[in-house]
Amino acid sequence: MPTTEFRDASVKALANPELRANFRRAMDGLISKRAELFAQGQDWAPLRALGAAAKLNALANLPVLLEKLEAKLIANGVQVHWAETIDEGNEIVKTIMAKRGAKRAVKGKSMVSEEMHLNHALEAEGIEVIEADLGEYIIQLDHETPSHIIMPAIHKNKKQIAKLMFEKIKNAQYSEDVDEMTALARHVLREKFEHADVGFSGVNFAVVETGTLVLVENEGNGRMCTTVPPVHIAIMGLEKVVERLDQVPALLNLLTRSATGQPVTTYINMITGPRRPGEKDGPEEMHLLILDNGRSRVFADPELRDTLRCIRCGACMNHCPVYTRVGGHTYPGVYPGPIGKILMPQILGIEAAGDLPHASALCEACTEICPVGIPIGDLLVRLRREGARPSHGPIAVKGAGAQGTAREALIWRGWRAVYSAPALYRLTMWGLTRFGRMFPSWLPGLSAWTEVRAKPVFAKQTLHELAERAGISDD
Amino acid sequence: MTDARTAILGRLKAADAGATTSVPSEDFTTVLGRGWSAEERLARLRRNMEAVHTEFLDARGADWVRAVHAWLVEQNLANLLYAPETPVGRRLGQSWPGLGPNLVPYERPMAEWKSGLFQGISAGISGTRGGIAATGTLILWTDADEPRTLSLIPPVHIAVLEVDRLYDTMLQAMRDQNWAAAMPTNLVFVSGPSKTADIEQTLAYGVHGPKRVLVVLT
Asked: Any idea what DSSP says for residue A358?
């Protein structure tokens, strides 16, 4: 049953016309750009099959591939770390930085680092971490979290950003000109890149065959963070693995077209280790942190495992009628939209995020456009079921059953009784058609519906009666 | 953190034993060759890259070193950073005209002249390992001779592209050049100048990487 946090936040978001306009404009733009690109090529179905195959193959062999990836990376000179929880992950990062006496860091866009609340953990140690992606930089100025996984500052319009930059950046001139705002950010961040001790990045794909980390971006901040500082720390969830290099082109194609409607991003950065002897630049030291944070639990369930196919393109949120109306900050946790609705209840648990799978009309727009074919609609229904009653798998979804109520159980028991006894069924139907309209709208169970909608009106006769009168036989 | 490693892999292996996932076979046709002619490949590369503000200098059948020199003079750019030991660098070193923009060799490790690189360079020139027509993309192969930052930090990036090294798609280039056999520390694909759409989805160029990219066709 949809409950408090998401619902209250939605009500607030829906009443904010500026926020709604910002999201509507952005999502419409992203939808049409993506549609144009896939219409041109006619290659959606075969590409999607390739993307799904690459990710399914990775999941089918995940533990073995992770071990092979680790071995290959170590051979390439990369130090590999494993973290079960976000606290463990943050401790590992802090230790690496402490060893180098590092105090200044720059960070390329990384959702896993958001998931870890890495900035917060490092700032508590007196370390400066600057978000280098323009959108992330903007929201960092306002102490906010991303409202979209690809376009983190999409909830803000030009005027809001102009005002923010003017107030927060020293010696800034007020300007609503996008080129001038961009130039200002370039000026501030170039100095940060030059003097950073550590650069952070996420990972789009980790290629087992060659021990290569693939990063996709348009701005160049990712290249800066992974090239200029003496230490590069990459962070990824354990599902980012791809077995072979030749599987990457199809995935890149799907990712950039689905995410922003671009045939390609300005930069694709394939990193296969730190600086080699004789090279003049690149980090001296390179680390990869592999984070679990509930993913191995997701992996344990053969159906829910499909959640881990995700390549984080964000197309599902762009096409989601719920996300477009309420925006990304309404969702608890880091990943909003449909992918968040299936991922967050599994990571945070049903108690904390179990209302998310219910915040959907099951229109399946997300399932239809997912570039790797995650059956999001089916998983939403599965998680609704887990919310009420845990299934009997080897490892249950965290907090499964937390939403089950005695009243709901009773209603279903009654429903079963009625539908399994023909005489009782006929009597109930007769009663409902004659007296059903007398139920008051405040009746528990009805009120959740009638609070925002008209009370449903029962027909005067059952369908069965009408059919009988029309002469349609029971066979 | 060997404990975390053991625990994570242990959980994954325990789960894996019980699950059967069938993996569909892969048909790469859609990401392989398109059967384009050499002219069509070049036309597509150019169209795709120009659509995102890349500039072109066609120096086929001419002295590309002089063409680059003339372009720098015309654009009023003071100097050009280059990698002296690469084929492109050697050509530049041999025949760069004495007057006009300075040729600056990338000889020392970056750490020794970081502020000079950040503040004192107007353009950097790199070679390419060819281009990809389908997306309009340059393949940059970095190594001891060709630094990564040559194409990243200077505000203008000039890339020399031999037109007979164009591929239809990335997969075609990957297979033809057998990348998987020996990857460089940093293989970079560039499809234009640095850009962003993070403010109201309005496209702006020159955020963190080069503000301008000039492709010199040879």
From this structure: G
Give this prediction's pTM. 0.94
Give the model confidence (pLDDT) of A270-317 as tens digits: 999 999 999 999 999 999 999 999 999 999 999 999 999 999 999 999
Among the listed residues A305, A229, A244, A248, the one whose alpha carbon sits nearest the alpha carbon of residue A69? A244
Cα separation, A255 vs B89, whole angstroms: 36
Q: Which of A317, A349, A316 is nearest to A330 (CA)?
A: A317
Listed by number, the residues of chain B in 5-64 with a beta carbon closer than 8 Å to a beta carbon of chain A are 5, 7-9, 11-16, 18-31, 48, 52
Tell me the domain boundaries of chain B. 34-217
Cα-based distances in Å from B144 to A113, A239, A280, B85, B141: 32, 33, 6, 9, 10
Residue A163's Cβ-side half-sphere holds a number of Cα atoms within 13 Å equal to: 6
Nearest Cβ partner for B209 among A247, A267, A296: A267
- Nearest CA to B17 out of A397, A300, A243, A53 is that of A300
Residue-wise pLDDT tens digits, A198-212? 999 999 999 999 999
Q: Which two tokens stand for residue A396?
A: 């249950």
Name which of A182, A209, A264 is nearest B196 (Cβ-Cβ): A182
Contacts of B180 in chain A (CB under 8 A): 209-210, 244-246
CATH number for B34-217 (one of 3.90.1150.10, 3.40.50.460, 3.40.50.720, 3.40.50.10420): it is 3.40.50.10420
Q: Reduce the DSSP state of residue A58 to 3 states and report it.
A: helix
3-state secondary structure of B8: helix
Judge whether residue A173 has pLDDT over 90: yes
Q: Which residues of B156-171 are buried (b: 16+ CB within 10 A; e: fewer)?
A: bbbbbbbbeebbbbbb
Complex ipTM over 0.90: yes
Distance from CA of B140 to the nearest CA of A (A): 10
β-bridge mates for residue A436, sequence order: none
DSSP line for B90-104: HHHHHH--SSSSEEE
How far is residue B140's CA from residue A220's CA, in Å, rounded to a whole number? 14
B21 to chain A: which residues are within 8 Å by CB?
56, 59-60, 302, 305
Give the span between the Cα atoms of A161 and A55, in whole angstroms. Answer: 38
